[in-house]
Design goal:
This protein is of the alpha+beta class. Helix content is about 35%, strand content about 25%.
């Protein structure tokens, strides 16, 4: 595990806010990253991308590197990454293709299947399709998970308990996207695994998520006290190893760089299913990646410096 490089005096643009459903979370992430970078002696500038003048600020600010603290669309999906490529600015995290693939849960599923990575069965629905409710129930049973294909933080997600709930859940998801995923519900322990690095990435300790609500929803993610984290996850050693293997494999198959965080489910018999990959995990006080890094001996300011190093090729 490399030590964090010195970032003292580095001029760093911290992109935050934006226009996605996760704007408030992004602002919180950005503020904490700015504080951490300042603690390490860097010279960060917070920039809200909701105003398109941010592009001029990037061009005229004399920045050496960009720390992207945007979640969801127009930040985590490859769009801002493409802009930064055009501007010739190095940035924290994955490139255009990996960001877009990870954000699109249907494309991710295709790649996971091609790589032999176990993931729950699903059906993808497009706006305007005739939806066969009976067929979905016949395939997956009464209980299923419905979510927009291109949203994060469980926005628009529903756990369906009975067939009668399915139409409303699908309609809710379509309010956020033109493509919706209906997935077989897999009961078990939710375990997330962070991955750090570029050419030689490494996994962080497993982290078990115990939400107050039925699942790890938006409130559970971002309101203190609404979930607890257990490190290492309270599953068998074999299951923890498999969670880490799947997370690293997903990181590689998507082509991620710098960091990622994969979500998995461990069933009662120890089978592990890969759910999805986040290329810009939350960096708030309740977030998962910073907690896992802390368990590995990497405090938050050091983690931020490490990520800057990966972006610049100095870590």
């Amino acid at each position: 595990m490399p030590s964090a490089p010195s970032i003292e005096g580095r001029r760093i643009a911290v992109l935050m806010g934006g226009t996605s459903a996760e704007r408030e979370v992004s602002l919180n992430t950005g503020k904490q990253v700015v504080a951490a970078l300042t603690e390490r002696g860097a010279l960060p500038t917070a920039i809200d991308t909701a105003d398109l003048a941010f592009i001029d600020a990037l061009q005229s600010g004399g920045f050496e590197v960009v720390f992207i603290c945007l979640h969801g669309r127009f930040g985590e999906d490859g769009t801002v990454q493409g802009l930064l490529e055009l501007l010739g600015l190095p940035y924290v995290g994955s490139g255009v293709l990996a960001s877009a693939l990870a954000m699109d849960k249907v494309m991710s599923k295709h790649l996971f299947a091609a790589a032999g990575l176990r993931s729950p069965e699903y059906v993808a629905l497009s706006a305007g399709d005739r939806i066969d409710i009976d067929g979905i129930v016949a395939a997956f049973g009464e209980k299923s998970v419905v979510k927009p294909a291109n949203e994060g933080s469980s926005v628009g997600m529903t756990i369906v308990h009975h067939a009668t709930e399915l139409p409303a859940a699908i309609e809710k998801a379509f309010a956020h996207d033109t493509c919706v995923l209906v997935e077989r519900f897999v009961a078990g322990v939710e375990v997330t695994v962070g991955v750090l690095g570029n050419e030689d990435p490494y996994v962080l300790p497993t982290l078990e998520i115990v939400p107050v609500h039925e699942f790890y929803d938006y409130e559970s993610k971002y309101v203190p006290g609404m979930s607890s984290h257990i490190i290492p996850a309270g599953v068998s050693e074999a299951a923890r190893t498999e969670c880490q293997r799947l997370s690293m494999a997903a990181h590689r198959v998507l082509g991620c760089r710098g960091m990622s965080r994969a979500d998995t489910i461990v069933t009662e018999d120890g089978t592990v299913y890969l759910l999805e990959v986040n290329t810009i995990p939350g960096m708030t006080s309740t977030s998962l990646l910073p907690d896992a890094a802390r368990a590995a001996g990497i405090e938050f300011p050091e983690l931020c410096a490490l990520l800057i190093g990966y972006a610049l090729g100095t870590s």
